[in-house]
Amino acid sequence: MKTLQEVQQDVDHLVKEEWQSYYWAPLSNLARLTEEVGELAREINHHYGEKPKKSSEAQGNVAMEMGDILYTLAAIANSLEIDLDSAFESVMDKYRQRDKQRWSAKEGELSTEES
Question: What torsion, rounded to 10 degrees, do the Cα atoms 104, 87, 20, 65 define?
């Protein structure tokens, strides 16, 4: 399994070495990320929601849409020189502290205690 740092290195190699290109501006990549999240929402809605695909639409893939999101997020992080491993660890620490009393012992049930 790859670390997020390895994912970022793969994206960086693809963009700079294989394509001999550059990263889009952060705002352009954010627009792309938003498009990719929309595509994931559409696939999830088709697979698990009430909106069936039209017969003329190609079969989609939820996992591939998630991969597109990860790629685009890594590209944004690389362009801004952000280490996603460190960012993720910081966020996990935040959630562990903030939400440690939020969930009751019964799965999926909100605790009545405020955190």
Answer: 10
Any domain includes 34: yes
- Which of these, 7, 19, 14, lies nearest to 70 by C-alpha position? 7
- What digits encode the pLDDT tens for the residues 31-90? 999 999 999 999 999 999 988 888 888 888 999 999 999 999 999 999 999 999 999 999
Query: Are 69 and 40 within 8 A, CB to CB?
Result: yes
| CATH number of 41's domain | 1.10.287.1080
Q: What is the 3-state secondary structure (H, E, C) of 5-51?
A: HHHHHHHHHHHHHHCCCCCCCHHHHHHHHHHHHHHHHHHHHHHHCCC
